[in-house]
Specification:
alpha+beta, Immunoglobulin-like, 7-stranded mixed beta barrel, 6-stranded mixed sheet
């Protein structure tokens, strides 16, 4: 391009409520700056929005002094009140802005791709940066943003005064729940009727939320909760029918016209976007709902970015990690969050081993950036996907040292790398499980909460699941099986994945790193909770019930399944009408198939039997989840039929056998059980199918088990023996099970032949 005294220094393709101009309303703009030391006559210059139309709009006869900027609105209409307008608009998301001269030469060109609506491209340090902070006509720095804000007229009347779109601590109600909120303020000398106004997040639906019929006196505040559920409204707080996302526009309408706006983007957690006493909005670290605002900073420092993508790098000598930063950047390599006491980034980092780089930019007059985290898994040569967790080492150590303190959770950052895909997300990190908390190799839980980052993970973690939204994930260590075969639990799930009646947790075997240190082979699992029911049955999570065999309630209510068991305990189920009462409330095929599976694997840890239901699925009937099988596949000779009807209850926990004992009094149920036992043994629990699944597990895990065994204190020889133990179990279990079934059900030889003749 030809050397030019002019440069495109800022442009906003799509005004999403960034500011409201009196003449052009919600218009985008292009800012051109004279970067020379002489005055420039603009009549010889033009602007365009594509290479095919580089001269779409020509500057009028006017001069631009050295160091000064001119703003041209891209409103699609002609010049108004002495303000320049191109007569064309810029494309959303992707496009080009051109500066040309009358000789047809391109003097400057700025191209943008995947630019979020409401973001500007601002020229800083010889490059363009995408940011939500606008300063047309002023410098692209905090002083310039503040100066532009000060130039804006404050609307007279009802105004948007403050908003939070990442709130986890202010204005709790409805049982200590917190919600995003919007504060309105009467900036006039007269009482205002709120019913004359509407709020919305989209110009396409200006009447989305009509404000309540309330009179607001001069100088008064009114706060609305942006929960998306008006039914959550209380005496103190009205709730809107829309939510606020991480990047959000808020429009206030009066008599059908936009009267005020706010554009929320890159607002840190528990900061507010607050109208400043100097004009415009600032990012305030001290939200003040229903009170005078406390000014904050006009800008947030840009997140440090890396030119080398985080990921898995094998067969390399060294990695060079250069950070693309603005201002002073600090970093750590031990997983801890960096601060102003951390190492200062001055030059690219040289990495020769697995490392987690965490960085933050801290600048004067700006809110510090969020923490950027980049994991580099170097020359580890894994055959499985890799999950890297970064968190403060002292907090991880506290979890390890205090395993019996339930519910302790710390902030973390998690990255998954698999076949060039994956995810990176901030989340909560805590221990998971019961007795396994006391084991050396512990299980963990990832909680995707809004106080850390996105409130949900959006990624299809499991190929066997047709959904891609998760509130929690479990990192399972293998539990009691971690130093034996490791895969008893996921083998059980893999087999029952083909069941059409019983639910199981999906799994993904991965290699876990914590703060750059190898932690071994783990399985990512679904968490069995209300979201599990919601995603598996495609129902509202608020309709879900999840109950354990000892009546511990994870979600919803105990009453349904407890009522079934109580009824079975007080009614003769040999009577058809009474049996039908159970059938109307319990999916009997799910129930039988679950117990067939438990019987085959002779699970010793039956306490984690899970019942699930939803009023929106299968008429509200209860179904079973085949769950927690790391203590199974040991006792091939065990008579599980007798175990599941023991009057005193199953296992040391005395798990109730009331339902099964009483169902066994019904001839129809006994026949159904035998029929489904035959069906399952010929299908998913056939020796052929189970053996094939075992070999799949063996092949999947073997390349990784030598390192895992060394990390956790067992040997490959012992692992191979445990795998063979499961193979041997499978080869004989059906024979033992059928002999036990014949005895338990009192089958004659002919009856046994009718049901199981194909197995003899």
């Amino acid at each position: 391009m030809t050397e030019s005294p002019l440069r495109i220094t800022e442009f906003l393709p799509e005004n999403q409520g960034n500011f409201l101009d009196k003449a052009f309303g919600l218009s985008g703009y292009i800012e051109v700056t004279n970067v020379s030391d002489q005055t420039v006559q603009l009549k010889n210059y033009a602007l365009g929005d594509s290479l095919s139309a580089p001269f779409r709009w020509r500057f009028p006869s006017m001069s631009l002094a050295a160091g000064k900027s001119v703003v041209v609105y891209t409103s699609g209409i002609s010049e108004i009140e002495g303000k320049l307008s191109t007569g064309f608009t810029l494309n959303e998301i992707n496009g080009t802005v051109l500066l040309t001269n009358d000789q047809g030469k391109i003097l400057d060109q700025a191209t943008y791709e995947n630019l979020p609506n409401g973001y500007v491209m601002a020229y800083q340090d010889e490059r363009y940066i995408a940011q939500p902070f606008v300063s047309p006509g002023y410098a692209n720095d905090p002083e310039g943003v503040e100066a532009f804000n000060a130039s804006l007229d404050l609307p007279d009347g009802l105004i948007i005064n403050e908003a939070m779109n990442n709130n986890t601590k202010y204005l709790p109600h409805n049982g200590a729940q917190t919600y995003d909120w919007i504060e309105l303020f009467n900036n006039s000398s007269k009482t205002i009727s709120l019913s004359e106004y509407t709020l919305t997040t989209s110009q396409n639906t200006p009447s989305l939320y009509p404000l309540p019929d309330i009179q607001l006196a001069p100088g008064e505040y009114y706060v609305l909760m942006a929960s998306g559920e008006t039914s959550l409204s209380t005496t103190s707080f009205k709730h809107t029918n829309f939510k606020l996302s991480d990047v959000e526009s808020i429009y206030l309408y009066h008599q059908g016209k936009v009267s005020d706006t706010a554009f929320l983007a890159e607002v840190p957690i528990n900061f507010s976007y607050a109208r400043s006493s100097k004009g415009g909005f600032t990012y305030s670290s001290q939200p003040t709902p229903r009170a005078k605002n406390i000014d904050g900073e006009a800008m947030v420092s840009a997140l440090p970015k890396t030119k080398l993508a985080a990921g898995v790098y094998d067969d390399v000598n060294v990695l060079t990690v250069a950070l693309d930063t603005f201002g002073k950047t600090y970093y750590t390599l031990d997983g801890s969050k960096p601060n102003s006491n951390s190492r200062v980034y001055t030059s690219p980092l040289t990495i020769t081993q697995t490392t987690v780089v965490r960085a933050i930019t801290i600048e004067n007059d700006k809110v510090p950036s969020a923490v950027a985290t980049y994991s580099y898994v170097v020359n580890e040569n894994h055959s499985l996907p890799v999950l890297s967790v970064a968190m403060n080492p002292s907090e991880f150590s506290a979890l390890q040292k205090n395993p019996w303190v339930i519910g302790t959770e710390y902030a973390s950052h998690v990255e998954l790398f698999e076949n060039g895909e994956g995810f990176a997300i901030d989340c909560g990190f805590q221990l998971f499980g019961g007795s396994t908390r006391g084991l050396a190799k512990k299980s963990f839980e990832l909680n995707f909460r809004s106080e850390y980052g996105p409130g949900m993970l959006h990624y299809q973690v499991f190929d066997t699941r047709d959904f891609s939204i998760f509130n929690k994930l479990v990192l399972r260590s293998g539990s009691q099986d971690y130093d034996a075969a490791f895969f008893r639990d996921i083998l059980s799930s893999e087999i029952m994945e083909d069941s059409e009646t019983v639910e199981v947790q999906a799994y993904k075997s991965i290699i876990l790193y914590i703060n750059g240190k190898y932690w071994g082979v783990y399985d990512i699992r679904e968490k069995v909770d209300e979201y599990f029911v919601s995603t598996h049955y495609n129902v509202d999570k608020n309709t879900a019930n999840v109950v354990r065999a000892d009546w511990d309630v994870s979600a919803g209510s105990l009453s349904g399944i407890y009522g079934i068991v109580s009824y079975a305990n007080t009614h003769d189920l040999s009577v058809s009408a009474n049996y039908q009462h159970i059938l109307d409330r319990l999916d009997i095929e799910s129930y039988i198939d679950f117990w067939v599976a438990e019987t085959f694997v002779t699970n010793n840890d039956i306490i984690n039997t899970r019942y699930i239901s939803s009023s929106q699925y299968d008429g509200g009937k209860w179904h079973m989840v085949f769950y927690d099988l790391d203590y199974a596949w040991y006792n091939y000779y065990r008579d599980y039929f007798e175990f599941m009807v023991k009057p005193e209850g199953m296992s040391d926990f005395k798990v109730s056998t009331v339902l099964m004992r009483n169902l066994m009094k019904n001839d129809d149920f006994r026949r159904a059980f035998l029929e489904r036992l035959q069906l399952n043994l010929a299908g998913i629990w056939s020796e052929e199918n189970v053996s094939a699944k075992i070999e799949t597990m063996y092949t999947l895990l073997k390349p990784e088990m030598a390192r895992d065994s060394a990390r956790w204190g067992f040997t490959m020889e012992s692992w191979e023996k445990e795998v063979q133990r499961i193979r041997d179990y499978t080869s004989v279990r059906t024979r033992y099970l059928l002999d036990q079934a014949k005895a338990f059900f009192g089958l004659s030889n002919n009856e046994f032949e009718d049901y199981f003749g194909d197995f003899v």
